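not sure who needs this but someone in the group chat was asking about Putative D,D-dipeptide transport system permease protein DdpC from Occultella aeris so here u go. i didnt clean anything up, its just raw.
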Amino acid sequence: MIRGSLPDGGWARATSSPSPRRKKDLGASGAAGAEPTRVPGGRSGTREPRLRRRAGSGAVTAFLRPGLILSVLVILVVIGWALVPTWFTSVDPITGVPAEKFTSPGAAHRFGTDVTGRDLYARTVHGAGLSLQATVIAVAIAMFVGTTIGRLSSAPPRHL
């Protein structure tokens, strides 16, 4: 890969070793801009310069990732199913039509039907609320137990 032109009109390729012309500008370690430092143990070394980032660039690019956007959309749809399932389907998830058992997915039944003819999409949408409730309860219990154990373990012993 071509890095750029040299003062004499030639071209330099990107390599890991420095050019002989620039060797005099480099520090003891061979890294440009390296500062001599003292490291633990009395040895002297060099510290590599840190890379600088533009302010705010990480937060903006994090929200532009397609995987993140898709994940957020799926979570929002599931929360919508849990809060207002009737907006997404008008079919009753409990009643079935025996003549339509094991119907493959199509326009009438998006996920198909089960052994008793119940619409699987309607059952999924209406079941999302119960799944979300179970998740919230499990997370609340885990937070309570973890916080309690953490607080007890950080308390100083009173009687030894």
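also Strands lie at 2-5, 11-13, 35-38, 44-47. if thats useful
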